[in-house]
Design goal:
This protein is an alpha+beta fold and 195 residues long. The protein has two domains: 12-49, no CATH class; 65-191, GTP cyclohydrolase I, C-terminal domain/NADPH-dependent 7-cyano-7-deazaguanine reductase, N-terminal domain (GTP Cyclohydrolase I, domain 2, 2-Layer Sandwich), CATH 3.30.1130.10. The strands form two sheets. Strands 5-2-3-6-7 form a five-stranded mixed β-sheet, with helices on both faces. Strands 1-4 form a two-stranded antiparallel ribbon. The chain is elongated, with a radius of gyration of 19 Å. Helix content is 38%, strand content 26%. Bound molecules: zinc ion. Zinc ion binds next to loops. The site of zinc ion (ZN) has 6 residues, from loops.
Length: 195
């Protein structure tokens, strides 16, 4: 499952030129001292913040899938993430809680935050990111069930004063056993601190 950028390779120079044009359009002087290096910095940081497009989830998990007989749920909570909303290119960030019920194998724990990053580091919608993370884990681990809850703050909402500051948006995706088994789901929600 490769995650290519929707339309090919990004171009640093083009991003830089575009950032310069934004400065001009804002009425700024892009050649003044404080802004001289800004277009290049903006271009580089945008590339860094969207490097998840280049991540292949199967490569990421290679060598980290282990045979495991147990069927007790695995839960990791409070995985921090930073993303950009695709509507305003402003930060959305927060925490992700993941649970899955193994059926024959488990994924090395350090890979869960990396899977979150692979989907967070691109232009995103919180709802889509939540289900992408769940579906990736379901596919990799062939889990009997996967639960993902994402709590996020959206600076496009907070900075523009659309909502009260520090409001949180919570999204969830329940697959397999977490969807059909209310008790399993309730236990996950409790472990994730969401009761
Ligand atoms: Zn937004």
């Amino acid at each position: 499952m490769s995650l290519p950028r929707p339309s090919g390779r990004p171009r640093l120079e083009e991003l830089e030129e575009s950032a310069r044009r934004i400065l001009v359009a804002l009425g700024e002087d892009p050649d003044r001292e404080g802004l001289e290096a800004t277009p290049r910095r903006v271009a580089r940081s945008l590339l860094d913040l969207t490097d998840g497009y280049g991540t292949d989830i199967n490569v990421l998990a290679r060598g980290a899938l282990y045979a495991h007989e147990g069927t007790e749920p695995v839960t990791m909570r409070d995985i921090p993430f930073y993303s950009l909303c695709e509507h305003h290119l402003l930060p959305m960030f927060g925490r992700c809680h993941i649970g899955y019920v193994p059926s024959g194998r488990v994924l090395g724990l350090s890979k869960l935050p990396r899977i979150v990053d692979a989907f967070a580091h691109r232009l995103q919608m919180q709802e889509r990111m939540t289900s992408q993370i769940a579906e990736a884990i379901e596919q990799l681990v062939e889990a009997r069930g996967v639960a993902v809850v994402v709590e996020a703050r959206h600076l496009c909402v907070e900075m523009r004063g659309v909502e009260k500051a520090e409001s949180q948006t919570v999204t969830s995706c329940m697959l397999g056993a977490y969807k059909s088994d209310g008790q399993l789901r309730a236990e996950f929600m409790e472990l994730a601190g969401r009761r």
